[in-house]
Specification:
The complex is a heterodimer. By secondary structure, chain A is of the alpha/beta class. Chain A folds into two domains: about 1-225, 3-Layer(aba) Sandwich (Rossmann fold); about 225-285, Alpha-Beta Plaits (2-Layer Sandwich). Chain A has helices at about 40-50, 70-75, 95-105, 110-120, 135-150, 165-180, 195-200, 220-225, 240-250, 270-275, 290-295, and strands at about 1-15, 15-25, 30-35, 55-60, 65, 80, 155-160, 185-190, 205-210, 210-215, 230-235, 250-255, 260-265, 280-285. In chain A, a hairpin with a 2-residue loop joins strand 9 (about 205-210) and strand 10 (about 210-215). In chain A, helix 8 (about 220-225) crosses helix 11. The two termini of chain A are about 35 Å apart. The model of chain A has no long low-confidence stretch (mean pLDDT about 95). Chain B is mainly α. Chain B has helices at about 15-25, 30-55, 60-95, 95-100, 105-135, 145-170, 175-190, 200-205, 210-225, 230-259; strands spanning about 55, 60. Chain B has a two-stranded antiparallel ribbon with strand order 1-2. In chain B, helix 2 (about 30-55) packs antiparallel against helix 3 (about 60-95), helix 6 packs antiparallel against helix 9 and helix 9 crosses helix 10 (about 230-260). The longest helix of chain B has about 30 residues, at about 60-95. Chain B is globular and about 60 Å long. Classes of the chains: A alpha/beta, B mainly alpha.
């Protein structure tokens, strides 16, 4: 069964089509990443998943529930980690979990055993009584994650789960998300970190202007859109070197400001040609999801 | 439109109400000092100070007249503050409602929970004033307890009206319109400090339409033991204002949160 099944799903605000005839199917038990620049329609799509934004057209089923028709029933079975923290600042860590559980009508006795598990999962056992305002950003995010698990959801929706976190906090969130997926929980996440999507997601969908550009596993997307090797070259003599050597040796190149990106299946001719040019600096790396993302969505800034 | 417009299932508003109650308990100390202290100061200063100049109003000593008015205006203030500033904070600043909407609660449950909570806070503050008034001998026997359900009904009406304003607000400054154009005129013209009989006919015609006027009309006789009349009409008017405001607030807030 698909955990998400969308057919021709659209959302318009006036003339603007924020989500434009989206059709997709996400199988169960995987981590699915939704990538796109600001204003691509990601957050609107996530809001539609929980029934909090009504589609203008099309149909949507999440965990088999028609949405928004059965959204309230659906929300018993999903967990949401929002982009912007909305923990209850008037409460302590444990009170946040208790209060949130009360919205699901979870009984006190079931909660008694559940809360220690959640605190352990979030590595917040020692902070159980702390006010939320005394927690660091990473701890608050872990509490948000624990809170989203209070109803033992089948599907967890995370909107930019690690934005603004330090590397230590991010690594811990990644481990926790992998542990959840290993238990069979479906994960849906949006992120601006391509490295995060590559590490966590079994399948990613890249969207822009409300439409899907491509969908597959990160590795297949890279193989499909980008030559395997990338060399970024910059420095004073770049223009002359490019004219004489670089342009001819790369399968494809892209000039961005003072840097030229060379894409090739075989990097060796380019590296050899760079050898006698100490005035040029370069970085050689395998192609990654960010290359795919920029190729599909373009490099211009999105200030929307 | 997903689910029903108003609260989906009976009692689903309860966790919303209980969440606010838990927060109130945390801050109950200062809240109770305010609930008891403010009316005590007003009753002592105005009741005795102004009362010595005024003497008898109608057939009541001024302190007794004033106590039965202040209990109503405190319901107006408490409910308006809760429905505007506190509800707006939960909606637009702390995103408490957004968190609730990721759970099986719906907009209708949240609005109903907030509505009953605002009325509950009015009730808490009225109960404190009633005790202060009783201690000062400004209450006519046990019948005065009947003022509390009337205050709760008025609290529902005032909270619903304030929630409409919260649903429309883009920032806290917006509430000044409502405070200046509705809350203050209600306080001054609704019969809290002086009987409306003395007002010029045009002003009095306005005062007749204020929900606070109808609250005072029920509560004052109950607290002072004077003749009570037209209860059904007064309650109907409060229900009319409250019911209309409740529907409008739900629509506005639903539109705002659902985008």
């Amino acid at each position: 069964m698909a955990i998400i099944e969308a057919q021709g799903l659209s959302k318009c605000y006036g003339e603007q089509r924020v989500v434009d005839a989206l059709s997709l199917s996400v199988p169960e038990g995987i981590c699915w990443g939704l990538l796109g620049p600001n204003g691509a329609g990601k957050t609107t799509f996530l809001r539609m998943l929980t029934g909090n934004t009504s589609p203008s057209a099309g149909s949507l089923r999440v965990l088999g529930f028609p949405v928004p028709g059965k959204a309230v029933e659906l929300r018993r079975h999903i967990g949401v980690v929002p982009q912007q923290e909305n923990l209850d600042v008037d409460f302590s860590v444990v009170e946040n979990l208790r209060t949130y559980a009360s919205y699901f009508g979870i009984s006190r006795s079931r909660l008694q055993s559940r809360i220690p598990e959640l605190l352990k999962f979030a590595a917040l056992e020692s902070r159980a009584g702390s006010p939320v305002t005394a927690l660091s950003g990473g701890m608050q995010r872990r509490l948000s994650l624990a809170r989203a698990l209070v109803n033992e959801p089948k599907l967890l929706i995370l909107d930019e789960p690690t934005t603004g976190l330090d590397p230590q906090a991010r690594q811990l969130i990644w481990q926790q998300l992998r542990a959840l997926r290993a238990r069979g929980m479906g994960l849906v996440l949006t992120t601006h970190y391509m490295e995060e999507a590559t590490r966590l997601c079994d399948q990613v969908t890249i969207m822009d202007h409300g439409r899907i550009l491509d969908s597959d596993s990160p590795q297949k997307l890279i193989a499909r859109h980008i030559e395997a090797q990338v060399i970024e070259v910059y420095g004073k003599g770049l223009d002359s070197w490019h004219g004489v050597r670089g342009e001819a040796l790369a399968e494809r190149f892209e000039r961005v400001g003072d840097t030229c990106f060379y894409y090739a299946r075989d990097e060796r001719p380019l590296l050899d040609a760079l050898r006698g040019h100490p005035e040029l600096s370069y970085l050689h790396r395998p192609a990654n999801l960010e290359d795919v993302f920029l190729r599909l969505t373009g490099r211009e800034l999105r200030d929307a | 439109m997903p689910d029903s417009l108003l609260s989906g299932r009976a009692m689903r508003w309860l966790p919303v109400w209980r969440r606010n109650l838990r927060v109130w308990f945390k801050l109950a100390g200062p809240a109770l000092v305010g609930n008891f202290g403010e009316p005590l100061l007003y009753l002592l200063a105005l009741g005795y100070g102004l009362g010595s100049l005024v003497g008898i109003v109608g057939e009541l000593p001024y302190l007794v007249f004033l106590a039965s008015g202040i209990i109503c205006s405190s319901a107006l203030f408490t409910a308006s503050f809760e429905g505007m500033y506190s509800a707006y904070t939960r909606m637009a600043v702390q995103n408490t409602w957004e968190a609730m909407l990721a759970t099986p609660l719906d907009v209708g449950d949240i609005v109903l929970g907030e509505l009953i909570w605002g009325a509950s806070k009015s009730l808490i503050s009225a109960a404190a004033i009633l005790m202060v008034a009783a201690a000062l001998g400004a209450v006519d026997g046990w019948r005065a307890l009947w003022a509390l359900p009337a205050i709760f009904a008025a609290g529902l009406c005032f909270t619903a009206m304030a929630l409409v304003i919260a649903g429309l607000a883009k920032n806290y400054d917006f509430f000044l319109y409502y405070n200046t154009l509705f809350v203050t005129p209600s306080l001054l013209l609704g019969g809290v400090f002086f009987p409306m009989e003395g007002l010029p006919p045009a002003v009095r015609a306005v005062a007749e339409w204020l929900p606070l006027t109808h609250t005072v009309a029920i509560v004052r006789p109950l607290m002072t033991g004077t003749a009570l009349s037209g209860v059904a009409i007064h309650l109907l008017i409060l229900m009319f204002y409250g019911g209309f405001a409740y529907l409008l607030a739900t629509l506005l807030i639903r539109k705002r949160l659902r985008g």
